[in-house]
Design a protein that fits this description.
By secondary structure, the chain is of the alpha/beta class. The chain is built from eleven helices and twelve strands.
Amino acid sequence: MTVLSQDIGLQLYSVRHQCEKDLEGTLHRVSEMGIHYVEGGGFDSYGLDKSAFSELLARTNLNMVSVGASFEELQDSVENVVSRALNVKARYVVCFWVPHQDTIFGIEETQLAIDVFNEAGRKLKESGITLCYHPHGYEFRPYGEELLIDYMIKSSTYFDFEMDVYWVKHSGMDPVDLFNKYPDEFHLMHLKDRACGTVGNVNGRSDIENNVVLGKGDVGIKEIVYAAINYGKVKYMFIEDESSRSMEQIPASLAYLKLIMGLK
């Protein structure tokens, strides 16, 4: 596949604090950066009713590719998720976290997630929406001769995945290796870089200030982007920057991506 410039989006969690203070102004700033595809950063419409939020996206020339959904929503009220996605014409719904106690995450939690995601994914598919799960690192623990993530991927009948390359690296894995092992499973991708020397873990935890401009850290963004361009089914790559410097770093990250993709 060929990844075009318009396929580079932004995870709105990157500008969560700015959205809380000035939603429309922040979305205009995102659009002015040259970004026109976004992923919802939460599970609501930032306090706006559905109609007003949809109109705001249109007014700021932003297309909501995917919306977030909590695990509990997918388990108990998937119809609300469908409604939220259809309101903004989103093609994807993403679950970012599986509830678990402290650092305890094993096969029981994994199996529950698989069951919930397959059932919710089946219902979402009926409305033309694809469910993706976003692993955070605790899924990369050993299970038998492989890892819990392997078992989850192989059991994913009605859902696909969004790779956050930061969390894959943070758990001790190589994002390119994982992508090459499962080229058809990752439809969405978070591009997020990590300060060199950061100590990883498989608990899904890291200081947000470890987020750096793409290409400045140790995740290997260039190699990952090249793999996504040449292999697999990645449809959208979202810049994500959780740090307090996100508004300054996002334009630099976007410039780096365009440079390595030959777009400028």
